[in-house]
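Progress report, Aim 2. The chain analyzed during this reporting quarter is listed below.
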Amino acid sequence: MSSYYNTLNVANNATSLEIKQAYFRLVRKHPPDKNPKEFMKIREAYEVLIDEKTRRQYDLVGSMPEIVRHCFDEGQRALSEGSAEEAIHLLEQIIAIYPDFAIINSLLGDAYLENGNSGKAIGIFEELAVQEQNNAGFIGKLAYAYLMRGWHKKAVAKFRQALSLDEDNISLWLGLIDCYLKADNLKKAQATAYEGLKVSNRKGWDNLQLYYYIVQIDVFSQDLVNMKKHLEEMKNKAAENEEEKTNVAWFLADLSQKMQICGLYEESAAAIDAAFALRPDDAEIKTLKKELNSQNNIFAELDKLKADSSIDGFLAEMLDFEVNKCDNKDCLDCEFNQFSLETYIISELEIFRPEILRLKNAYPELYKLKLDFFNQVLDRKKEGFLFDTFQKKYRKYKKLCPEKFEDEDEEFEDKPEPYRRPGPKVGRNDPCPCGSGKKYKKCCGR
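Predicted structure tokens for the chain:
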């Protein structure tokens, strides 16, 4: 099992400054949102080695009986691999022999938290926080345990106490911000992130992790102005380090997708543009940018269409369903809903033809979403084909999902009949029967 010194890549006689520098360097390389397990290992090693007492205890483990060292190493391994029950069993064996060994009790508390037993974890960390009142790591773990239990006020108090002892511990700042976010207090979360930025600038440590939160808070608050400003600051900071460029670019790419799902199309476009500016040669980001920009344009056009009173709102409803239907191509519910929407158009062809033509001219990208269907609707020669096709579909869906027709029999039984021309055929160059004075091909025959 790798030692805490190996985790931080420092010598056994490293100074506190060297430990902090190693911690900042590794957090930059393994941000919590991208590598949470690796980040937790780094945080654990830092919190043990940065405190004089826990570091001394950790160094003593090497001189303990072999069975104790084995249980400690295996307990760490099990915990890192997600086997919390195994870790608890191993660590409890050591505590039976050395009940006052703080770092082993702390590790056991971590195992209880991992196992979902926040009550036992709180008991351990509360005792450690009383015994070691100057240990920011133990107090911070108690704060995380309170947070897991949903005790936000208690968690905030302990995070603040821990930060007063070690304001360089990035995980404590992130934990406090997360605590406010989970309590739905965006203003406090934002103020804490800004406070952390001030400390980082004064102390000279990397603060990109705080920007991750700041940008997300801007998104939650729908503050587009500040979001663009912070994206630019984040991009500039990342540009100073090649490794950071990749981490930040992928954070922004992921964020842009989440923004789009939330309907924040401008924000999504700004985030993916910032990601692309950092990594313009990344094929995946380039592809994602193309897809997102296309989708964002469609969603923005759809919002515009919904507000356009010159086009029947039913078309906006139909296209809204089209862009938001599930990804399962074999989804019967989506198939049936699509059929129902299209059937309504076919049952009112003369009403919807001019509406669809206006849609084609004003919103060509939206028209393309149902290009084949809309083209068939506009082509009068395809009326018989349309009616026959939808009568077949009607019989198909009534057989596949009869429950959907229980209250709709009358509507569907009165389905459209094949089109019959009411009068003599009108040539393309003949005067239009509507009386407009135009040729048929330039008027109703379009």
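The two ends are 77 Å apart (CA to CA). Residues 7 and 324 are 46 Å apart (CA to CA). These observations will guide the mutagenesis work planned for the next reporting period.
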